[in-house]
Inverse folding.
C-alpha cells in the first residue's frame, strides 16, 4: 500500500479517492520516520509532523517511545512490481534503523494520549464525587474501605491437635471473604464493562461527528467547485454579453450610416426627379413652340406657294 500506480490498478471513482488518501497517509508516515531518523543522526530537534495525517496522529505516543512499533512489509515477487518493491524495502530499511529514546518521566501505557487524559479525568471526577458523597471516605482510600468491610479473621493459633472448632471457623470466614471478593470482582467487572461501553459509545459518537464533519467538508468542497464553475460561467457570459453589446453598437452605427446614405440618396433622387420633371416640361414647351413655328411656317408657305404658281 502506498506504492501502487493508478495507471496499473485502473482505479476510478471512490476507489481512486480512497487509494489517494491511503497513499497520502503513508507518505506522511514516511516523512515522520525520516524526520525521526534525521533527529537521531544529526542531533537536531525538528518537529515531527504527526498531525498531518490521522494514522500518524493516532500512533504518536508509540513513535515517542511510549510503546513498541512493529512494521509488516508486504512485497510481490513479480518482475513487474520491481520498482514498488524496491521503494518499500528501502523504506523498511530506513525504518528499522530508527531508535527513539524512551521517556523517563512518563509511564509506559498502551493507551493513546487522548485516552489517557480522559481516563485520568474520569478517575479524578470519580474520586471527587466519592469524597463529596455523605458517609463516603474522607481520609482513607476505597481499597482500605473494602478491606475493612471484609469479615475479620478469627484466632488461628492451634493449642490442641484435637481442636475441631478453629479450622471450621477459619474456613467459614475465608469462604465468606472469598464470596465477598467475588462479588466485588463481579461488580468491578460490571462497572468496567459499563465504562468501556460508555467509552466505546463516546468514541462512536466522536467518530460519527468526525465523519459528519468530513462529509460536510467534502460537500463544502463540492459547493466551492460548483461556485467556481458558476463564477467562470458568469465571467464567460459577461464577456459574451460585452462582445454582443459591442457588436450591437457597431451594427447601430452601421445602421445610422446606412440611414444617412439612404436619406442622402433619397434627396438626390427627389432632386433628380424634379430636374427631370423640369426638363420634361421644358421639352414640352419647346415642342409646343416648334409646332407653333412649324404651323406658322406652313401657313406662310401656303400663302407664298399660290403666288409663286401664278408667276410661273
Amino acid at each position: 500500500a502506498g506504492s501502487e500506480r493508478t495507471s496499473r490498478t485502473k482505479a476510478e471513482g471512490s476507489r481512486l479517492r480512497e487509494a489517494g488518501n491511503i497513499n497520502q497517509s503513508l507518505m506522511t508516515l514516511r516523512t515522520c520516520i525520516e524526520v525521526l531518523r534525521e533527529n537521531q543522526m544529526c542531533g537536531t530537534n525538528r518537529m515531527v509532523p504527526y498531525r498531518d495525517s490521522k494514522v500518524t496522529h493516532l500512533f504518536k505516543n508509540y513513535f515517542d517511545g511510549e510503546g513498541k512499533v512493529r512494521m509488516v512489509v508486504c512485497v510481490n515477487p513479480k518482475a513487474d512490481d520491481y520498482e514498488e518493491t524496491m521503494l518499500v524495502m528501502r523504506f523498511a530499511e530506513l525504518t528499522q534503523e530508527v531508535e527513539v529514546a524512551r521517556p523517563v518521566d512518563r509511564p509506559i501505557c498502551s493507551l493513546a494520549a487522548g485516552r489517557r487524559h480522559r481516563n485520568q479525568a474520569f478517575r479524578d471526577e470519580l474520586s471527587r464525587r466519592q469524597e463529596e458523597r455523605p458517609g463516603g471516605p474522607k481520609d482513607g482510600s476505597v481499597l482500605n474501605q473494602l478491606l475493612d468491610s471484609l469479615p475479620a479473621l478469627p484466632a488461628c493459633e492451634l493449642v490442641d491437635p484435637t481442636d475441631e472448632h478453629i479450622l471450621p471457623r477459619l474456613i467459614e470466614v475465608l469462604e465468606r471473604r472469598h464470596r465477598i471478593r467475588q462479588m466485588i470482582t463481579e461488580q468491578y467487572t460490571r462497572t468496567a464493562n459499563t465504562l468501556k461501553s460508555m467509552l466505546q459509545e463516546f468514541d462512536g459518537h466522536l467518530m460519527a461527528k468526525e465523519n459528519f464533519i468530513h462529509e460536510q467538508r467534502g460537500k463544502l468542497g463540492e459547493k466551492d467547485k460548483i461556485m467556481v464553475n458558476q463564477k467562470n460561467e458568469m465571467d464567460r457570459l459577461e464577456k459574451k454579453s460585452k462582445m454582443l453589446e459591442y457588436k450591437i453598437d457597431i451594427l447601430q452605427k452601421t445602421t445610422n450610416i446606412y440611414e444617412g446614405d439612404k436619406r442622402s440618396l433619397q434627396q438626390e433622387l427627389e432632386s433628380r426627379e424634379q430636374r427631370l420633371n423640369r426638363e420634361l416640361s421644358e421639352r414640352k414647351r419647346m415642342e409646343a413652340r416648334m409646332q407653333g413655328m412649324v404651323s406658322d411656317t406652313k401657313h406662310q408657305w401656303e400663302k407664298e406657294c399660290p403666288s409663286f404658281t401664278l408667276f410661273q
Remarks:
- The chain is about 75% helix and 0% strand.
- The radius of gyration is 56 Å.
